[in-house]
């Protein structure tokens, strides 16, 4: 803070040196002035010396004292101004609590209270299974969400794709198979119809849809053990899928539901359905031309979340894509620049066990590879499975097989997709 005219005028007109109480008063006033200048903080730089001097040859440039005072105050001000972030807050969480945040617990939509203990323990989400939702699903989910530690919100997800893949059409309305949408509806019509469904999903407290499917597959058949797509795909034409996928995604967002674009890097032309056994996608060199563009379009349009498939991708390694750092960290995160939430397909798939992984071991490998949230199927042992996954993740961090920073990063993505700010 520099006010040379003020200083020069004050000093040039100063009376002779006064004795006693008057001189002390002058000193106190000067000290107060210096303190005031420091507090207003108009300039954090070092004051420049005045080019003027008094007739007695004594320099009128500011003394070293104010400059030193500023240096003394600077570190304290810098420390106080350190920004709070979700990551800095999460760094204070236990490994177990961080691990729980990366797990989506499967539960029947007719009995969501079954997941109360897992939600109370900090599970990041629940995955609804079923084909007909109860009329009071919204109030049941509201009660479930009340058990979230710190009331930080909960990802409530389901598969509402259209056609034969709909969990709650009785509550939110029905959509046709994506293949029908791609062939008969314009992108604007897709977005408009999806928005209507999404608004009703949000009203029922379901805030995430594991859709749209942006796999490029033109086979005119129902999905099966040997073909994971068929009518689940909008088209066999890459351009049509890209436009329809973005329209579907935007329709969900407009209705207040978080879309999860799937199944990276594309299941079109796969050798088998990974739910039932080992499966391979088309070669990576082919997928880059045919299967990747719809994901690129979705990312450019602001996709908040992407699901990674359990298929092996020839050319990207021997592990399923959901367990592959090459597929997730190098390609999706690195080269494609995706910054949002990465979700695995169900780790209960036969393709995962065929690759030599139990569900807990697969969860650790998925997080190591760059995934943020792990999914598994509904069964009779959900509670013990959830605990086993959380324990495996915690032990991996303790044993040095999974970095704590990676776990914090994953937990941060889970919070970010729900716009949770731990610092507010």
Describe this structure in a few short sentences.
This protein is an alpha/beta fold. It has helices spanning 4-12, 20-40, 64-80, 86-90, 95-101, 116-120, 137-145, 169-172, 178-184, 187-203, 238-254, 284-290, 293-300, 325-335, 350-354, 359-369, 382-398, 404-417, and strands at residues 104-108, 125-129, 155-158, 160-162, 165-166, 208-209, 258-259, 261-264, 305-308, 341-346, 373-375. Strands 1-2-3-6-7 form a 5-stranded parallel beta sheet, with helices on one face. A 4-stranded parallel beta sheet has the order 8-9-10-11. It has a two-stranded antiparallel sheet with strand order 4-5.
Describe the structure.
This protein has 424 residues and is an alpha/beta fold. The chain is 45% helix and 9% strand. The chain has 18 helices and eleven strands. The chain has helices at 4-12, 20-40, 64-80, 86-90, 95-101, 116-120, 137-145, 169-172, 178-184, 187-203, 238-254, 284-290, 293-300, 325-335, 350-354, 359-369, 382-398, 404-417; strands spanning 104-108, 125-129, 155-158, 160-162, 165-166, 208-209, 258-259, 261-264, 305-308, 341-346, 373-375. A five-stranded parallel β-sheet has the order 1-2-3-6-7, with helices on one face. Helix 6 (116-120) links the parallel strand 1 and strand 2 (125-129). Helix 5 packs across helix 17, helix 5 (95-101) crosses helix 18 and helix 10 runs parallel beside helix 11. Mean pLDDT is 86; it is low at 1-80.
